[in-house]
Every structure is written in structure tokens, then in C-alpha cells.
Amino acid sequence: MWRYGKPHNLGRTNLIYWPTQFFMLASVAALIARAALLKQDDYAPATMFSTICMLLAWCVAIVLNYFQHQQEIRSSDLIFFLYLFNMVASAINIRTMSMVNQTGQDQFTAFVVFFGLNIVGFIFEAWPRGRTQVQIKSGASRFEKANLFSRLTFHFLQPIVSLGYKAPLQAKDIDGMMPRRMRIEYSHDLLNNKWQKNIAKAKAKGEKPSLFWTILTAYGWDWAPVMVYRIAASTLTYVLPTLLNQLLGFIGSYSPGNENPQPVSLGVILAFGMFFASLLNSFFMAQYFQASMNIGVEARTALIAMIYRKSLKLTSAAKQKSTAGEINNHMSVDAERWAETTNFLPMFVSIPYELAIALWLLYQQIGWSVFVGLATIVIFMPIQGFAGRLFTKAKAGKLEGMDGRVRLMNEILSGIKIIKLYGWEESFMERVRVFRNRELSQLRRIGTVFSFMSIMFQSMPLLISLVSFSVYASVGGPNFSRGDINPQRIFVSISLFGMLNRPIGMLSHIIALTIGVTVATGRIQKFLLAEEIAGSTTESIKALPKDKTIPLIEIKDGVFAWEPEGPEVETEKEKLAREKVETKKQKQLEKEARKAGKPIPEKAVPVEKDYSPTLTNINLMIARGNLTAVVGRVGQGKTSLLNAIIGDMYKRQGTVRVYGRLAYVAQTAWIVNATLRENITFGNEFNQERYDHIVMACGLLPDIEMLPAGDMTEIGERGINLSGGQKQRVSLARAAYENADVYLLDDPLSAVDAHVDQHLWQNLIGPNGLLKDKTRILVTHAIHHLEQADQIVLLKDGEISEVGQYDTLMQAKGAFSQLITEYSVNEGRKRKEKKATGEDGEQDDDATEASTENGDDKDTQTVAVKKDNKAELIAEEKMVHGSVAWGVYKIYAKAASYKLALFVVILFVCGQALQIGTNLWLKHWTSVAGTGDNSIGKFLGVYAALVIAFMAMNVTVTYVAMVKAAIRASVRLHERLLTKMLRLPMSFFDTTPLGRIVNRFSSDIFSVDELTPWNFINIFMCGMSVLGTIVVIATTTPIFLAIVPPLVVVYLLVQGYYIRSSRSLKRIDSVNKSPIYQHFSETLSGVTTIRALAASERFIADNATKTNSSTNAYFSWIIANRWLQIRLESLGSVVVLAAALFVVLGRNTLSSANAGLALSYALSVTQDITWLVRSYCDLNNQLVAVERVDEYANKNPEAPTVTDVNLPENWPNAGRVEFRNYSTRYREGLDLVIKNISFTVEPAEKVGIVGRTGAGKSSLTLALFRIVEAANSHWAKASYNGADMDADPTKKDQITDLEKVDVEEDGGSIWIDGVDISTVGLTYLRQHLAIIPQDPTLFVGTVRENLDPFDELQDADLWEALERAHLKEHIQSLAGGLSFKVSQNGDNFSVGQRSLICLARALLRKTKILILDEATAAVDVETDELIQKTIRKEFKDRTILTIAHRIKTVMDSDKILVLEKGHVAEFESPATLLQRPDSLFYSLAHQAGEIKDTDE
Questions:
Q1: Cβ neighbours of residue 1434 under 8 Å, at least 6 residues apart?
Q2: Kind of pairing, strands 1315-1316 and 1309-1312?
Q3: pTM value?
Q4: In this predicted model, what pLDDT tens digit does every residue of 1381-1406 receive, in sequence order?
């Protein structure tokens, strides 16, 4: 210790150190005195030897104590154990010396003094040290501070259990419970280092590494104490029947006619022997469970960290194979399996050991007949193996179905707004049901296999006893004579067969769990072995070159692709396996189609993947401080060029060199669920001055003023409470705050309106902006800025077709010159602005005014922090406190059906009656055996009938419970949750993190499917068993009934005392899991930005923090289980002691048969009661999942999908839209976003809607689709949902309750063709309007499914729509055409192409009203022009509302609606507005370069 330990430098607790040293020294002195006195007397050598040994031990203890206080903060286990050992041994020694009359000797007095010193020394050693300065300063966990006694009894949890009994526990109450080695920092390094070594070894041998064996071997020596505890517990389990045998022999000696009964003291000693064996067994079992669970929790934590880190390094091709839903499942379900399984794995060693002991003890009782019973087990093994294989397949199928379902739910929740706008809820529900039905069919298979496997496990001991007793009774005696049937033999054997029940019964559970964990680990392994991005793609040199002429970005002969060079090489074996899977899938699809009454799908023709590169022949140099603009048509590779520089693509050829730090702004803004300020500073140190400059340059000051708490307002997941333009500017601000050297800006100006575009150009991106000295690559479609760029790159078909300065390219008269000439109004303006601002340093008045609104001194203004109760958007996850209400049981029973639930209970009662019947029949047999009036055939016949009836009952009850009741409950609960989830108002999704909802669909539904049914079965089995035991013991030894009431009271008190804390801990555990998944979903969507900004380490640290708090909660919950186990099993030992003592007291009146029956049941009851209370508490914890699912299933939905209002035929048939004094807010308690607006759009009128970012343009479209309801209307209030189950009562609920909302005047109404839309069913309304939304969202599936999810149209219609959307050529070029698979989020299409697919969707909807919400923001000007032509031609007889930032898009509208802060500012024809230079529209058009200069 002094060699390896490190001093903690926290000082020494003198109040404990000096007394312990003193008493140890005094003990040494007492032993020296004894040795000297022994020398004077006639002593036994053994006495002197033991005294010297003790003397040496205490001398070593003194030295050990010295180092212990320097290096440890808790008492030494060795010294603690030495005290205990000495006290027990000394007590025995003193008793022996008194029996041999040595009490008068001086050495006896010295020894008694030594014994007394030991007791006092032990009190000081064991004294709690929680309040000592050393422990307070150490910051160690409760577990690390606990001494040996506290760890053995789990007493260190007592303060938390007591606290939890008085009031609901909070997460902060259990801070720092877990040992340090469970933290991610330690556990990840341990497992990951081992995994990396194994990968390298396997690679060298040309094999695949095994993650399963890596995990087992990584914790090598940690398994040693686990095995020691387990073997010790198993051995003690079988000490009990041996003592029972002796006790029955003792009772037998009191039978009439026996002259020499054994002494009563022997009976009492045997009773206490059984008590201590039972008690020690409990202690060893608890330590075994804890030690093995610690390994499981470490493995789970390490796996979560490995999965997270891997997800940051996946290549584009690997990302397509592992969707966010699947990776989430690896974390939430697969990694979780290790925590649930490790305490069962060592049983593969202990079960054969227990079987061997049981068989040896049985051999002592019934001789060779036991081997016939053993043969029964062997015969059943192949059947069990076959069932195991079926089980494995079903388990893998269940997980596959679950993956698909969670992936789809992830997608649905991410794109819920689009699904609602299109009215596609039903279609997506059907898709989820397909995966759910696959899951359920596998669950049915698992339940059916299991009900037959129950013969193997629950009925096996009875079957073995039937076979063994039959053979023994017939030919089991000496020389194949009849065996001697007596109570002692039969009941000791029954007790042993009962003990066989646990290991054999557990075998099924262990095999099922092991299969589960190997399948889960295989899935994680496949993910961890996925391809990673090569670090060598881009040569990144962080330091800037001293020579300023060296370009900061240089690409030579670059060839880049999103896919590897060719398909992976398949072995013949892999090919056969793949074909087998494909055939199976096809059969499944056909079966599902027949069941649904749909046409049978054609067999999928394997399509050749396109492995050709995306970018070829790229040669590009970008000088320091240069602004390079990248332009080109949609889908030409502009975004890919930036990704190639970041290093996200496969580099097939060439070199990429980047000097300096990178910053990146993605085309689709990525926002984190944090405050606005945190989104901008992004983990960097806060600098007020720099921050204010950047916020001003990004034009965010007016937006910050509008937000409830300024820049401390919490931004929802995916930036849900910001407009598209605001999100993009926050993204720009984040990049600017990074203070990088190179900026990659992917079309950030497309999401902002004209004057904000101008402001950003002048203050941030352009030649005079904040980033003017930085190297910038700007992908843009805003051609009016190009003349101010230093270099322009034109991309065509993945190649650079032109590169150079603006003037050079214009003179070249190529494609670029043609583009500018055709599409720019002010081509003749020639950098006038640039010169003006460059020479005078003045800015365009309009621009400054429009962007800052508060004068010129804005740049020096500090961003004020406002306090507001609406600042916090995402409410803490709610946690119900107190007990799981009976209502939750009722919910589950109702879902499973009351009839089935009652039937299951009746079947369990019958099963227990049959089980008791077999033992009563044996008792009857033993009492009449030898009287000669009954044949063996009759006894065996009845016994066999009872056993077979019990087996049949077992199969029936398991089948009804698992396959009928449990699956019915799963179906009902999931269906309720799913239906309600897609019917909830948008405000719910705005305030609820995606991870929290996904948690309901993954972890909670998994609990409902697989864990809850098991716990119910366990409760019924153990409950019936306990009831049966009490009945049997009470009928044989009625005096036993006297201790039943106090025992029941004590059990109920312990259980009631414990369950409050346990339930709180389980809820804290459930609530702490959600942030991991939420953070993970967030990371996956922004992985390119994270990598480009080199923020991976910080995100890994965030993941570690969240995982550590989840692990801490889980560990606390496990420790609570152990706390309960020790106390319950100690009570169980008291039951054994009581039963044994009552038997000893009634020795003269009890027959051996009755005593045997009572004691064999008493031995099994301790485990049954413990399992009953444990299962009840586990069930309570699992029902938290039912409660959480039910909570969401009972939220208030939005307005009904269908109403009974009679609508005119073909409504809307004209397309007249009328807003009447309309106001709306995003949800109750917030400010109005649209305030009392009134205007009318006539049929077939084209209206352009413009206004500053955040003016309410998109809110207007949401109002038309009733995504938001009119303020204070019935449905606005009826669909309002408060916070989720409140996680932390200390945190004030920030969402204002409805009662507190000031009721203003009526929110008005919207009328379409004379009908108030608030009276129309939502589905009808939404399916009869068409929209091209701001965020072009695609879903995983085929192009066909994305265009026509209800499968209502012919392919010819789809091709026609694609042709009109100018995308037909591109789709035809893809492998499979309309059957081409769209990857997650539509990542295999550019943002512009996604917009065009959304246009095709709108073209397919033959509706009278079309809304374009920034529909063409992400496409180039040429494509925009073509789209506008299509819209004018195809929709000429329809009403069109167009929201656009590109003023050019709305110039030919009939009217322009200008919005300002939620009010209508102007509503007239563009010509009228352009004649008024003071109009807002005029200034917008002027900034966008759409007004020809008069001074030309």
C-alpha cells in the first residue's frame, strides 16, 4: 500500500486516528502480557502460537493504519475484518477457557482485557466518518466513503431512503452516488482501448473482432470476486437442506418407541445454524448482484460513449446505412442490455455447480434413482436448444422491427410540421403500423416459444421428482428392491428438488437474456465497425503561413464522391445470406399486402448504385482574405465543394490543403436547444464587446429585442421558435464568433429578406463587413452581390466551368456573362456601391435604418438581458411523485382486458393448488407407506396425474399471459400513443424535445412489450407460492400463525418505506435518459458543423455529462434494490428460524411428515417472499413506463380531423381568401405574432407577401392550415397542453397557465369561399390546400412515396409533375428512377432539388389555393425563373400566396402584402407601391437591386 498508494493530502482525522492507534498498541501490550504470563504457567503450544500470530497481525495493523489515514478516506477493510475476526474468535476462546476452568488464571484476565480493547477499538474504527473534514473535502461518492459494514449492508443508502420516504427525491439528492470508475472518462477508456487492440489483432489475422468477448475480457479480474460471492452463496444454499436432514433426524428421535431422543440443545443449534446459513447466503448474494451489476453499468456507460463518438466519425455512405433511429436504439435498448444481463452471466458457472451439489445430496437420499431424473434433463436439452434458436431469431426480428419503427418515429417527429401541412398523418400512421405489426408477430412467436419452454423450467423439478420417486419406489432399494419411502427421505428430497427449481428455472431466463445481449452486442459491433472518415482527406494546417501570398485553400486535381469507389466485395457466403434476407423480406411484404387487401408488391429489382464521383477535375486556389463566390444551377455540386474542403467526402484523387481554423455555415441552419447567446458563443469564452459587434453585424439586435428574454431566451430544438431567416443569422453569428481564418458559407443569404441580405452583406460578409480580412467561400444565388466578389467560381455538372473575377468573366461572354445579362436588372450599376462605401465609408441609409431601426450607435450598444417567464421554452420533463397509482394498474389491465387478467389469476391459483396437491399426496404416501394396504401403482398414478396437470396448467397460463393478455396491452397502449402523438398541436412539439418523445416510443414501449409482462408473471407465481406456503405451514404447525401478522406488518413496512424512494429513483433514471437521446439527435443533425468547427470534443464532454448523470441515477436505483434485498432476506432468515424453533418446540407432538412439509416450504418461502416484494417493486418501476405512455396518450389534441359541417360541393371551388380581424399566437401565454389583420385575396389572384424576418409571414401560412389557431378561440384553448410530468418541483413551471392569460378581444377568423375554416375538419382543410414549405423535407423511402404517400396516382402523373418541376431529367438519371431510395433527411439530394420535389408535390395537388413559403429560396435564379413560369402557367386559375425574400420572385404579383411586426403595413399592386419611394416595398426592392437606377 505504501508503495502503490498516493497521499490524499486532505489531512488526518485525529479523533479517529489516535484512539485507533492507542487501542491497537494497547491490544499488542495485552497480548505481550498474555504471552509472558503463559510462559509462567503450563501452557499448550497452540495457545502460545495463536497469541504470537495475533501479536504480529496487530503490529502490522498499526503500520497499515498509519498509511491508511494518509491515503484513504474510509476505514481499512483489512483492519475492519481483523477486528471482526478477532472478536468472534476471542468470544469462542473465552467460552472454551471457561468450560475448561481457566477463568482463575492471569493469562485469562489479560485475554479478556485484550477482548475489551478490541471491542472499544472496533467502535472507533467503524465510527461513521461522513462529517470528518477528510471526507467532506474529498468530493468522493457515498459508495467510496462507506466502510466495509456499510457496504455489506448497503447502509450508506439509508439517508437517501429516509429522505425519499419523507418527500419525493430530486436528482440533486443523489448527486455523486456512483464510484469514480463508472464515470465515462474511466469506463470508456478501459473498454475502448481493449476494443481497438482486438480490432488490430483481428485485422492481422484477417478475422472479425468480437465485441461480446472484448467486453467480457475487458473486466477480467473484476469477475473474480463476482464468482467467489456466487459460489459461496450457492454452497450456503445447499447447507440448508443438509441441516434440514439433521433436524428431521432430531424430530424422528422423538417418535414413540424411541428410547434415546437427542438433546434439545442440538435442535436449537440446528435451528440457529439454518438461520445463520440463510443470513450469510443473503449477504453473499447481495454482494454478488452488486459486483456483477457494477460491471454491467460500466459496460453500458462505455458503450454509450463509444456509440456517440463513432457517430461523429461516420462516412457519408456509413451514415446512410445507420439512421438516427437505429443509432438511438443502439444506445437506448442495445447498450442497456448489458446493465440488465451481467448479473446472470456468471450463473453459467454456478448453475452446473449447484446441480452437481444437489445431485450429490439427492444421491445420499435416493441413491442411483436420481440419475434417471438427470436423464430427463438430458433428453429435454435438444428441445431446449431448438427453442433457443427460435427464440434468437424471433428476438433479432423484434429488434429489427423496433429499429424501423423508432427510425420512422424519429423522422415523423422531425418532419411533423410538414406532415400536418400536407394532412399525411394517416399515411405515416400506416407506415408505423407496418413495423409495429412485424414487432408484434415476433413478440407472439417469443411468447409461444416461451410457454412451451416453461415445461422445461417451471415444471422440470416436479417432472424429475416424479421420475426419480417412481424409479426409487419401484426398484430403487438394495438389489433393485423397493426403496424405503419415509418422511425424512421424501421431504429432504423435495426440498432439494425445490432448490433445483431455481437454477433450472433461471436457465430459461439466462439463456433468453444471453441471446438478447449477444444479438444486441452484434448490432452495436456492426455499427462500431462501420467506415470512418479518413483524417487524410484534407490536409489541415492550423497555423497560418508566414508568407501571405500562399493561398489558404488549395485543391489540386480533386475528384470527390459521396460513395466509395465501388460496391463492397461480397463473399459467396455473404451473398447467399443477403439473398436469403431479401427473399424473406419479399415474403413478409407479400403477406402484409394480402392481409391489408393491397396489391402484391413486385419483387424489387436490384438497382445498380451510382458510384461515379460528384466533383471531378477540381483545381482551385483561394488567396488569404479573398471573398470567393460559388455559383451554379441546382444540384451542380456547390455544397459538395464545401464538404470536400471540410473533409466529409471520399477523396478519390488529388490533394486538399487548408491553412488556419475553419468555420462553416450549413445551408439548412443548425440550431442547438440552448439559449440564443449559447448558440452564438458555442462553447467559446464570452466577450461582451466582440459579441455585441457580431450581433449587430448579423442584424440580430431587433430580433433579440422581440424575444421574451432577449438573448437569454431558450431556443427550442431545431430552432423551432425562430423564423428561417433568424435561424440562418444565428448560424452566421456562431461562425463569426468562432473568429476562424477560413469561412465556408453555404447559401446563408437565401433564407433572409432583401434588406437583411443587404445588411449582412455590408456589415458581415461583403468587402467592408466584419469578416473582410478573413478568407470566405460563399455559395450563393444572389447574383446582385457577385460584382463585389474577389473571385467567382461557376460549377457545372460537378466541374469548375469558369473561374475568375467578375469583369474578366463578363468579358469572356460565357455562361456566367449570359446569366448576369439575363437575370440582373442592374448589371450596368458596376460596383458603384462598392466604390461609394469604399471611398466614403458611408452606408446606404435605408439599409442601416432597416436593419438597426435604432440609429447609428447600435454597434456599441450592449445586448441587454431581459427577464421573462416565457424565456424558457422547453419545460423540464415532468415526474409524477408518490406511488404508481392504482389507476396505472387499471390502465394496463384494461389494455390487456379485464376478462383475460382475471382468467390469468384463476389459472395461477389452479396451478398453485396442483403444486401443493403433489406435496400433500407425497405426505399422505409417506404416512401410509409400509402399511401394505396401497399399491405403488395407485400412488404413482395419482402423483403422475397431478404433475402432468400442473405442466399443462403452466403452458396454458404462460401462453394466455404472454401471448394473449400482454400483447393485447402492448397493441392498445402503442396505438393510443401513436394516434394521439400525430394529433397533438404543433405547440406541443415546439416545447417538447424530440428525444423525450422518442424515449416514449423506444425505452418505454420496450418496457411495456417485454419487461412488464414478466414482472406480472413473477408476481403471480411468487404471490401464489407464498400464499400456498402460509396455508401449508399453518395447517401443519398452527403455532406458526402467531408470527404471520407481525411478519406481514414488517414486510409491508419495509416495502412501503423502500418503494417511495425506489420509485423516485426509477423516475429520475427515466427522466435522465431523455437528455442523452435528445442531445444525440441534435448532434446527428449537426455533425458536419460540429466537425468543421472542431467542436467534437466539447460535444463528447456534453454527452459524458449527460450519461454520467443518467448512470448515477441508474446506479442509485440498483443500490436501492440491494438495500431492500438484504433487509428482506434477513427477515426471510427469521421466518426459517421461527419455523425451525416451532418444530423443535413441538417435537413431541409433530410427526416427521408434518415437520418435513412445514420446513421444506419454510426454506422456499424466504426466496419467494423476497422475489414477491422485489417483483412488486420492479413492476411498480416498470409501470412508470405505462404511466409515461399514458401521460402522452391523454394530452389535448388539436381540432377534430372531420366535422359534420356541410361544405359546398368541390369546396374550395373559387379560391377567395379572407382574413377578418385575425390575430394568433404560437401557443397560450405568448405574445401575438399576427395582430388584428384584415385583407381579402380574390379568386385566382397572385399575392406576394414580403416583410422583415420575423414579421409574421410564415405565421400567416400556418394560420391558413390551422397549425396555429385564432387567439382565444375555443380550439386554441382546448388543444393547450401544460408542461410534461414536472421533473423538478424546485424549478418553477415557466409556461403560463391558461387562467393567467389575459383574455383580449376575439382572435377573428379566416374565410375561404364563404366558409369559416375553423368549422372545417383539419384533414379535409389541409388536403384541399397546397403548400411548398420553407423547409423542403423529404422522408426515407422512395421518390414515389415522397410524392404520393397514399399511393393514389399513376407513375405517368408523377413523371409529368417532375417534368414541370424541372427535375425529371435528374430523377431519370438515378438508379431505379421513381424507386430511388431517399436517404435520411433527403441527404442524397441538394436543398434546391428537395425544393423542386416539394414543388412537384404541390403540382400533384389539384387545389384552388397554393401557398409558396420561400419555395425557391434555395434554387438559383435560372431555375427560379423556370419555376415561376411553371407556376404562372400551371396555376393560372388558382389563388397563389407567395412569401419570398427574393423580391424578383414577387414583382409580377397582382398585389403585394407587406407585413411589419404582425400588422399589415401595405396591401396594393407592386406598380402602385413602386411609385411611392416612401413605401416599405420600394426600399426592399431598391436594396435587392430590382429598381433600375435613374442616374445611369
A1: 1364, 1403
A2: antiparallel
A3: 0.74
A4: 887 777 778 777 888 888 888 888 87
